[in-house]
């Protein structure tokens, strides 16, 4: 992930509803969620939810797939991993860090 992509992703997450929405999709894992389920869980109006999903999608953090009459939204775990890797790539001034970088989701 390059710097402009990181800025776009962080900008998308720098809003309370979108951050909650992204975390909800991370919790849902590879099964994803429908807009109706997300709106109900987060108590967000469908039009507002659509706007926030669009912003997360444009930032590459969320993908969607049609499943019959439904649209299933999923967190893009590869993008999340790339964002975290970018943020921690040169941490600790070259000294060994306490935490190691590992994939955030090994079964998604």
TrEMBL record:
Pfam families: HTH_20. Residues 1-95 form the HTH arsR-type domain. PANTHER family: ARSENICAL RESISTANCE OPERON REPRESSOR ARSR-RELATED. This is ArsR family transcriptional regulator. One of its GO terms (molecular function) is DNA binding. Keywords: DNA-binding, Transcription, Transcription regulation. The keyword Cell membrane does not apply. NCBIfam families: HTH_metalloreg. PROSITE patterns: HTH_ARSR_2 (PS50987). InterPro entries: ArsR-like_HTH, HTH_ArsR_DNA-bd_dom, Metal_resp_trans_reg, WH-like_DNA-bd_sf, WH_DNA-bd_sf.
